[in-house]
Amino acid sequence: MNFKNKALLTLILLHCALAAARSPFREGHQLTSTFGEYRGSYYHMGIDLIPATEGDTAVRSVSAGYLWRIKSQRYGYGRSVYIKGDDGLTYVYAHLETYAPVLLDGIMVPYWKENGKVYFDLYSDSFGMVRFEEGDLVGYMGHSGISGKEHLHFEIRKNDTLAVNPLAYIECGDNAVPAGCSWRFVSYGGERFISLGLYDLAERDNRLGIYRIELNGELFKRFDAVDYSEYGKGRSVYDNELSSYSCYRYKVSIDTGANTIEAFDYKGGSITVGTFIPYDIFVGTDIIWSPPDTAPVPIAYASGINGKNLKKRIRVIGADEGMFCSVFEKDGALRISVKPEFLGNESVSVKIKFKKKEGLYRRAGGRLSYIRVKKEEIVKLGGGEYVIMKDAMKPAIKAEEGKITVRDGLSGIDISSITLKADGSFLIPERDFNINEWGELQMFKKTEGEFHILCADEAGNRTCKKIEGHFVNFLTDPFSKP
Question: Which fold has domain 396-480?
Fold first, then answer.
């Protein structure tokens, strides 16, 4: 091997070693979700990581670059930071508990003082140049924007819309090969495929998505990149009716004759799932028959309800009018039932005229979840059951055993409405206090004496309460972490 080849090999090995060492956590990380995984009708556009060492929650930049965007929202990514790397890539750090002090004191607090809002979406032209070096503190891992275990959603984009698989840029351990959990032949509207349950395991018990599927030795699907224009088209890859987070079901198109399917993880671990021979006529319990070729289901009105007035309140518009959903009243509430078997990858566009304090909720598993919709806004609804209900109940503020909780049973607390005043001074959200997913007030500094709290729910119901005495439910200053 000549000198030039040796030098080139050395550079390649050095680059691989640096890539393997990169981590948003000081002591390394573990993988809990992979790129492209099933998320209802959507793809998971990044990977989820947790620190390899418990308590190592400080999130650090994996690349030198400049702050391009900083965002705070109630749902979705929660508190997130976007850094444009010197390498041309954009790195996204989401679901943060809080931001690094340079972002908190330099951007978030001044914005709150000027606008009085805790939710924002700011770009670099709003705050100027903020430089990050590799290893600089970005924030702290949390679960803002979601309800679930704390983790870091880590995303890499080649441009503003193309998300790429982060496993091509950072190393993650994987000591297991993929496995299959179930399969069945499926026929939907003339399309025939195998609904194939597959998952992978890495260093934990989490069931992860598959990286690559091969059919008869040829590439069928590989998760290297997903453009955000394809973000909501997960049903083209996943069998949405049967998939769950414990068993992702992939739609593998089949032909007559033998179909041999193999599944691979990113490390190259593989399993030959099996060879499947479809029959011309599907029989037995393993078949899901396609919907009958009949006229679309019209909007139906329950007996005793004035259909004309109901149609003024809820209107299915565009090409979907009169198709795919039922609107009716039950138990004093208006309900919308959207039938997923007729939708495929699409959704139904609905315009709803809300009365005072009414809101839209989705019913799933016996629970109602509030959907934030503006008055008379056109909303796209996927398959499922929806309820329009009135929320006339004020939020509840409780102070007991040194702990303050803020709860609301229907539309939920509007986090941006919470105002705190202690010892005669207003407290600044994110810097002085937080509200966790259980409605518990988390303080970043001690307060004594008179304490006032004002909050409202999403329906606009307001509650104010005065608390006296020493308030003991405070947290260690998060910025004292290493």
Answer: Immunoglobulin-like (2.60.40)
